[in-house]
Structures are given as structure tokens and as C-alpha cells.
Design goal:
Helix content: 55-70%
Number of helices: 4
Structural class: mainly alpha
Number of strands: 0
Largest sheet: none
Radius of gyration: 20 Å
Shape: elongated
Strand content: under 5%
Length: 85
């Protein structure tokens, strides 16, 4: 007799990060405090987008470096809930 074990799946959520609205704000904040503050910030959006993409890659390689304590706590709670279910 074969016994199968079914593991509960996480609810599906939208896991898309849309930078369309936030990229101009992020870029403006970066440029505001730099030596380029007199230039239009939108000319730097591609560079900032690439920097954010590199940060995501770095996070994927070494997430412990970027996780804040409360994020780690949420991961621990999720793991415990799964193990107790």
C-alpha cells in the first residue's frame, strides 16, 4: 500500500513588483542628494532600475544580508505554522 502525503500550499498572491510608479520617486530621492541634483532625474531611471535589479540578484544570492529582523521572524513563524499543521 502506498501512502501519499499532501502538503498544504500557500495561497496564491500577486508576486509582481511594479516599479512603474515608484521608479521616478526612487530616482528623484537618489538624485536629490547628489551632485547631479540640477539635472532632470528621469534621465537616470534606467541606471536606477539596473541598480534595483542588481540588488534583487544580490538578495537572491545572500538573503540573510538583506533580511531585517522582523522579516526573519515572519519566516520563522511561517515555518512553525507549517510544521504544526
Amino acid at each position: 500500500m502506498t501512502q501519499s502525503i499532501t502538503t498544504p500550499k500557500a495561497p496564491k498572491t500577486n508576486r509582481t513588483i511594479d516599479l512603474t510608479d515608484s521608479l521616478p520617486d526612487i530616482t528623484s530621492n537618489i538624485i536629490h542628494d547628489s551632485e547631479h541634483y540640477q539635472l532632470p532625474s528621469d534621465i537616470f531611471e534606467d541606471d536606477v532600475f539596473q541598480a534595483l535589479n542588481d540588488l534583487i540578484d544580490d538578495f537572491a544570492i545572500n538573503p540573510e544580508k538583506y533580511l531585517k529582523p522582523h522579516h526573519q521572524q515572519h519566516l520563522d513563524v511561517t515555518a512553525q505554522q507549517y510544521l504544526n499543521s
